[in-house]
Amino acid sequence: MVAVKDNKKKIIDTFKQNKKDVGSAHVQIALLTDRINRLSPHFKGNPKDNHSRYGLIQMVNKRKSLLAYVKKNDPKQYQELIQKLGLRK
Q1: What angle do CA 60, 61, 67 make, to 5 degrees?
Q2: Does residue 81 contact residue 70 with C-beta atoms inside 8 Å?
Q3: CA diameter of the chain
Q4: Is the entire prediction scored with pTM above 0.85?
Q5: What is the spatial distance between Cα 16 and Cα 66, in angstroms, rounded to a whole number?
Q6: Which of 41, 78, 82, 88 could hold 71 in an S-S bridge, CB 3.0 to 4.6 Å?
Q7: Which helix (H) or strand (E) holds 19?
Q8: pLDDT tens string 4-28
């Protein structure tokens, strides 16, 4: 549990927009991406875990809507964000 908190703190420090920022769209997208990446390998060993798959789909959709918001408001930061996270190739 401590490793998850440390990882979350590191992600927030990397993507925050100002000193007190913990909830901007950039931070939320980065945190969701981390959770999605940690949960995805779970399905290789547990292909019938549909309840967790439903949660994963919800996280992916939330990230998608936040990315659309960032893209609409600031396309330059959107490009930087997806490049940092490695979402598009």
Answers
A1: 90
A2: yes
A3: 43
A4: yes
A5: 15
A6: 78
A7: none
A8: 889 999 999 999 999 988 899 999 9
